[in-house]
Structure prediction request, 237 residues.
Amino acid sequence: MRRAGSVVRQVLNVVRDAVRPGATTLDLETAAEQKLAELGAKPAFKGYHGYPCVLCTSVNHEVVHGIPSKTRVLREGDIVSIDCGAIVDGFYGDAAITVPVGNRIDGKTQKLLEATESSLAAAIQAVRPGATLGDIGAAVQEVVEAQGFSVVRDFVGHGIGTRMHEDPQVPNYGERGRGMKLREGMVLAIEPMVNAGTAAVEVLKDGWTAVTCDGSMSAHFEHTVAVTADGAMILTL
Prediction:
């Protein structure tokens, strides 16, 4: 799983470098597909329940599962959430980043990115044997809501291993001490999705792209994390 996680990180690094004004989300998809092939890994998303691409590219008010397109052109001041999964020797890795386009995003959007990434770091700090899923969710929720943002509740993190989505579900909200206890050897995809406005989202007619109902910006960061005796081991660094 660490090998799969390494592949995902290398792909995300390449795609991050391809983000610029004038690029299309299909350009990002092409860069990811080429890097996956170069590394000898299989895409985890393409064909999964019929999904057509190796990346999810969600721009601005799109929360998750945005489908790459040659007509979706990135513009200065946009943000794009890039979610990637890879399979290596039958094991899965999954991670996401949100990247500003160009050098001029507004202050509130920058604060949204920082809060979302910080909430993921806080969640990972909570991972240890004997901790609960509620500890993870509460860690995310506390960071996000302290900054005046909203945690998406319609989509959650998940267990991961020899399948893309395994039990348990990993909400980005909750109460400390509640829920399943973590055990050594578990692997979780922890992925805060955070909206600048309300938490409400809806899925578009394409059946995939989820957007904020109020049109506010949304950010998404994710790591695949193993539970060890010493705490969290991040497999997608």
Observations:
- Residues 26 and 70 are 5 Å apart (CA to CA).
- Helices lie at 2-18, 25-38, 107-125, 133-146.
- The first helix runs from residue 2 to 18.
- The chain is about 25% helix and 30% strand.
